[in-house]
Specification:
globular
Length: 187
């Protein structure tokens, strides 16, 4: 379910073409600034002695786990001369807000994690470098911020996962799990 937010905050559906093992997203960039590409999906998953199955809990017997999963991936695409982040970067319940739109080699990069619009403190945070296939596990501070040392060029993925047991629906699922990923590249 892809969507693009333009630098002025307007929202539109991009063209999604199926690749060999991926989707290729095309969209027009008529003005300079940051375009934010989002892809999200949601599903309820249950586990019982027979394995994993998708659907509401009441459809299965002997369920040992049931969760509603909401996943969002985001990539910020700067077009032309870009100064700062531009319009609001909050698009989901669990959000990663970068301090800037690009990563600089040998610098520390800061990201703030928000849950329902508030800083999410003491949450595990994963930074992954595609180039060297290295995964750094970090933790957000009291303000929901995390500092990531950018020690390799190329594409990076930042990921946070948050479980909320208060968001449940009896007989359908016992918790909601939010997973948000932000992909960025060094310049």
């Amino acid at each position: 379910n892809p969507v693009v937010y333009s630098p002025n905050g307007s929202r539109f559906k991009p063209q999604a073409l199926k690749g060999e093992d991926c989707y290729i997203i095309h969209f027009p960039a008529h003005i300079e600034g940051n375009y934010t590409l989002l892809v999200d999906s949601s599903a309820v998953w249950n586990k019982n002695p027979e394995g994993w199955a998708m659907g509401p809990k009441f459809k299965f017997k002997d369920v040992t786990y049931s969760g509603s999963y909401h996943q969002m991936a985001k990539k910020i695409v700067p077009v032309g001369k870009v100064n700062g982040l531009g319009v609001a970067m909050v698009h989901g319940i669990l959000e990663l807000i970068p301090e800037d739109t690009s990563l600089v080699l040998d610098k520390t990069f800061m990201v703030q994690v928000l849950y329902e619009g508030r800083p999410l403190a003491n949450e595990s945070f994963k930074a992954y470098s595609k180039r060297n296939k290295k995964e750094n596990m970090l933790t957000t501070d009291a303000n929901g911020k995390v500092q990531v040392p950018i020690d390799h060029e190329g594409e990076w993925m930042f990921l946070v996962r948050h479980r909320d047991e208060t968001k449940k629906v009896d007989e359908e699922y016992d918790e909601t799990v939010f997973v948000t990923t932000l992909v960025m590249e060094t310049r």
